[in-house]
Structure prediction request, 398 residues.
Amino acid sequence: MKRKLFLIVAIFSVIFLWGCYPEGPQYTEDLDIVVTNHNPDYNFAAKGTYAMPDRIVKITGNMKEGDNPEFIPDATATQIIAKIASNMENLGWKRVAVGASPDVLLTPAELESTTVMYYYDYWYWWYGNNYPYWGYNPPAYYDSYITGTLLMSIIDKSELAGNGAPVRQWTGLVNGILSGKYSPERVNHLIDKAFDQSSYLKTN
Amino acid sequence: MKKALHILIFTFIVSSAMAQSHYTSFQYTVGFGSGSLNSYISRTSWRGFTLNYVNLVRPNIGLGFEAGWSLFYENKPFETYTSGNVSYSGKQWRYSDEVPVLATFTFFPMPESEISPFAGFGIGILYSHHRTDFGQYTFNNEAWQFGLRPELGIMYNTDRTSLSLSGKYFYGLKGGDLPSQSFFTLNLGVVVNR
Prediction:
């Protein structure tokens, strides 16, 4: 009897401990990340001017098919570009027109990807016609979420790779799940973070 | 060496035949990381258990097996990490599963005493699995390491059921994807069939 009681206590204790496995992220903002990379041999301090477009291109792959580029809504782009410009100014950079021979170009771009998750009950082939009797139980359901990425690149026209393509001297990437309502505060915070961790961008 | 091994095996077999009793224990385990494990996760593990089986080949010597599980977990706030030219910021959820499976030796200097101290040593495998959730990405690393485990404890004996309280130190030799894993545990257990 004591041995059975011991086994029961042990099994339920294990189940209880396993059931207390800690949870992970609870909110979409928990999954926001900021990544920056730079060329350590590039002397940012010796530069001072940059040019940046007034619109943010949306990377969809359509230009490969010869279509015109797509852009994110102007209102959103204006807010993002203003925040980027503010951070660059704090680091000592001066924004000039693209035709005024800037030292570098800062090119923001946006990318979205959709992830679809689906579930198919593999026993549906067996109970399919009978399921109304067992309660409504759809054989398959799906869910999806959209991930957005803001990509900021600094290129120097005079620094080209062997194939003639410009080399990114600095890359800032902001990534997160796009929830229903756009939050400028959330995006501004992440852009600030990208520049906070890039103090080497400071120019004289 | 070969002769010593034969003697050891013969002793073990004879001892097993002469075994007077055995016991099984289930322990609630609290873990404290040390070394590289503590660098990865600094929080105490409150989720753990250990199962022991000991065959008393002598009244004061037990040989047996032990298996357990401890989960170390830490929720890191939004922070910046740098590796080379890359800096990355975000929240992290870190998990470390530690699973020792050992053969054990236990010595009871006062086996008939109501409060019986004991000391033991275990040798076997320490499986470790580290999981880091960062943004929408998960990074997994695991290792099967050769494990060693000293133990000190006391047992409070009441007829066929006893309570045990012990401290253990697990040490895994470097191997697999992870550096050497080590941690202390405090174990409170119920012992039956002694």
About this structure: The longest helix of chain A spans residues 2-19. The two ends of chain A are 81 Å apart (CA to CA). The interface with chain B takes residues 2-3, 6, 9-10, 13-14, 17, 20-22, 24-25, 30-40, 147, 175-177, 193, 196-198 of chain A (CB under 8 Å). The mean pLDDT of chain A is 84.
